[in-house]
Fold this protein.
Amino acid sequence: MSVPQYRKAAALALVAGLGLSLTACSTKSDDDGGTDAAGKVTITVDCQPVGAQKELLANWNADVAEFQKQNPDITIKSVSVGEQCNNPPDFTARLAGGTMTDVFYGYMTDLQQVLDSGQAMDITQYATKDTIPTWDSVDPALKEVFTEEGKLYAVPVKNYSMGLVYNKALFKKAGLDPEAPPKTWAEVRAAAKKIAGTGGGVAGYSEYSAGNTGGWHFTALNYSQGGKILSEDGKKAEFNNAQGKQVLQNLKDMRYGDNSMGSRQLLQWGDLLTNAGAGKVGMFIGAPDATQAIVSQFQGKYEDWAMGPMPGQDGPAKGTLGGGEGYFFKKDLTGEQVKAGLKWIAYQKLTPGKGQLDYVRAKPQNYPVGLPQPLLFTNGSEAQKQELELRKANANVDTANFKAFEENPVPIVGEPRNAQAIYAVLDSAMSGVLTNPNANIDSLLKTAETKVNQLQAAGS
Amino acid sequence: MTAPGVTTQTVPAPAKPSGKAARRIKDNLTGHAFLIGAVVCFALFMWYPMIRGIVMSFQRTRRGETTWVGWDNYTRIVADPSFWIAWKNTFLFTILALVVGYVLPFFVAILLNEFRHAKGYLRILVYLPVMLPPASALFLFKYYAYDPSEAGLFNAILKFLHLPTSEWMQSPTMTIPAMVIASTWMNLGSAVLIYLASLQNIPGELYEAAELDGAGIWRRIWSVTIPQTRLILALLAMLQIVATMQLFIEPLILANGAGTQDSATSVAYLIYQHGFFQNDLNGAAALGVIMLIVLAAFSAVYVRLTTKQD
C-alpha cells in the first residue's frame, strides 16, 4: 500500500474508531427491546460491588449465576458504577446524562428528581406476587415513599431509622454506664462533656455539616424535637421556629459552651466515620448500618459500638428520621424487561435466605448479621418471621448492644420532598453553628428558610 | 498503483471556482479526514455543551417536559442568597491570588535566574508541587497543614513562634486566604518556569549596561527585567484571572463544599451545587452563562494582548 493510501486508511480508521467509541458509551441492554430471537430477556442493573469489595462482589456474582440458572430466559448484565451509587452529585450527573441502567438504584429522596428527569417508569401493574413473591409482605409505608399520585416508581430494598450510636469503650473510660445510653439532649450534652474530658482529641458528640449530610442530620435532630422541615403542602420551609432553634442551640452549647465536639468540623459522612473507627467519637446519631461502615470501611470494632433510641428534648424523642433505598425502572422498558427486573430484585433483595438476606453466607464474612434493620416486611408477616429467625440464628454481632434502640421505638418520619436540595441548604446552618462561636442562630435559620422557600417555589 | 496526491498535482485545475474548491478538498482529503477527529471532539465536547447550556438556561424541565421560561432561571439565580456571596468570594480569591500567586513566582524566577550553581536542582524543587495531583496536594493541606487543632502543621509553627493559631478552613475570615496559599503552592512552579524562560531571553548586555550605569538590583528589575518581560507578565495576569475565577477544586476539597456559612462558595461551586445537589440544572446553566460572559470579557483582553504580541 502506498503512503497516501496508508494515511487515508489510518484517517478512516480514526474516524470509525471515534464513532464506535461514542456508540459504545451506552448502558442500554440493546436496541431490540432487550429480547433476543430466542425470547431471552436482557436487563442491565447497576451498583454491582466494586472489585475492592471482594466478598460482596463474589456474593453478587454468585447471586447472578444462581438467578440466571433458575431463570434461563433472563440475562442480567451487571454494571458497577463505584461510588456513584451512594454519592448524590454522581447520581444526578448520570441521571442528567441519561446513562442509567435499565434497573437503577436510588435513595428514597431521589424520587422527585427521577420523576423530573422523565426517566422513571410506572411499575404499578407489574409489582405483584407473580414477580415478587413477598410483595404483599413488604411494608406498605416503604412502598408509599416510592409512590406518586397512586403510581409506584421503585421497589424498596433497604430502610433505616436513626438513633444514638455510641462507643461503649469510651463510655466506660469516661465513667458512664455503657448499658444506659442518654435519652435526652441534656443527657447527651452531659455525657459528651465527660467523654471529651478523657482527652486525646476525642469528640464526646460529633456531627456532620457538609456534603448534604449536615442538612440530613439537621432534619433528624429537628424531628426529634417534634419539628418539621416543610409545611403540609410542601411549599414552605417550616424549620425556622422554636424547634429548629433548639436544634442549633444544643449543638452550639456542646461545641462552644462545653468544647465537647472536637475541633475538626465541616465533617461529611466519611470524615465522621473515619474518626469513629479510630475511636475518637463518643456519640453521633445514625442508623444501625453505620456500625457496619465503621467496621468494614473504617477499621473499627463491632464490640465497641451500641445504639440507643433517638434522644428527645425533655423526654423521649417525638420523631426520628427514616429513609432507605430502592430500585427504579427506566422508562420505555418492555413489560418483559420490567418483569425480569422485578424477579431479580425479588431474588436478590426481598427473599429471606437469598441475596442480601442470605445470613448463612454473610455470617463468616466481615459484614454484620443481627443488626435491628433493615425491616422491610410488615410485622407478623410470614416473610418477616422467616427473615428474623434467620437473622437471629446467624447473628455475628452482639444483639444486646442494640436492645435499647429496639425496645424504645420512636415514631419514624420520612424525608422531606426535594430532600437532597434542602439538605444542601441546611448544611450552611449546621456549619455556621459548629464553626463560628458568634453564629447568629436566627439569621442562619432565616437564610436557610429563604433559600428553601425559593427551592420549593421553583420546584412546584 | 499511482499515488493520488501526485496525479492531481500534475493536472491543471479547471477554471470554475466551484470546481476549484472541490479539487482543493479532494487534494487535501487525507488532511481533512484527520481533521474530522479534532473537529468532532471540539463540536461534541466543547461547542455543543456550550450551546446546549445557553439553550437550557432559558428552559425548565419538570416531569420530563421541557418548556421555555424566558429569563426566569436568571432572576431566580440572582435572587439566591448565595449568588452575591459567591461572586464576592470569587473576586476576592482572584485578587488575592493575583497579588500573591502572580508576584511571588516572578520574584522566585528572578532569584533562581541569579543562581549560578545548582540551578537545575532548584528548578526541580520549585516545580515538584506541580507534579502532585491537585486533589492529593489539597488533601495534604486539609488534613495536615490546616488542621484546626494545635496538631496542625501551620498551627504548630504559629504556636512555636508564639503567634495566635487559626481554625483555617473553619474560620470564615481565613477561608479565602487559606485557599490562596494552597493554590499558590500548587501552581507556583509552572509560573516560575514560564518567567524563567522569559528572563533568559533578555539580552545580557542590557544588564551589563545597567550595571555600568550604576543600577542596583531593584533598579535593574524595574528598568530592564519588567519592561523586557511585560508582555509575558500581562499574558500570565490574564490567564491567571481566567483560571482563578473558575475556582472549584479548592472549596470542594478544603472546605467540603461551601465551607462555613458559604465562606468558601465560589461561582463555579454554586453552579455545581445547583446542578448536582439541588436538581436545578437549568439554574446552573443560567449561572454558567453569566460566568461565561464575565470570563469572555477577560478573555477578550487576553486575545487582544496575544494579537499584539504576534
Remarks:
- Chain A is about 45% helix and 10% strand.
- Residues 42 and 75 of chain A are 5 Å apart (CA to CA).
- Residues 3-24 of chain A form the longest helix (22 residues).
- Residues 30-161+323-393 of chain A form a domain with the D-Maltodextrin-Binding Protein; domain 2 fold (CATH 3.40.190.10).
